[in-house]
Design brief:
- 39% of the residues lie in helices and 17% in strands.
- It has a 4-stranded antiparallel sheet.
- The protein is globular, with a radius of gyration of 14 Å.
- The structure holds adenosine-3',5'-cyclic-monophosphate.
- Adenosine-3',5'-cyclic-monophosphate binds next to loops.
Amino acid sequence: MKERTLAILKPDCIEAKVTGKVIDEILAAGFDIIAMKMVKMDAKTAGEFYRVHKDKPFYRDLVAFMSSGRCIPMVLEKENAVEDFRKLIGATDPAEAEEGTIRKKYATSKQNNIVHGSDSPENARLEISFFFSEAELVQNG
Ligand code: CMP
């Protein structure tokens, strides 16, 4: 059965002008992009998105980073989308990410790691609804 996940191309991805390359990899891996937009989050919005990490030592810097520039949230659809997308992007820390993964190729640090991917189908649903209404999820046919 098809599943959805939320991806976010982070400010470092846009800054490094590798947006097109990363989107190409996502499409080549068989994901269908059913929604996509560009946003500039303020600190309050970024803080809310990452509220599960609010007690972590990296939270303040993460919020500052995610609100430092434009982001591209997108909804991806495919069988096993959540797990497959996390495999495609690799470990949070690019130093630990497998060869060939998006973070291994483009990320520069644990924080500036190019892309976010939901970590469970349940969180995917919550994260998708954070950025998109049902009407914005566009499918062919
Ligand atoms: P993401 O997959 O978007 O989920 C939470 C984000 O917090 C993560 O990617 C990184 O950008 C950031 N992050 C997670 N762990 C650390 C860490 N140890 N140090 C700095 N940033 C982190």
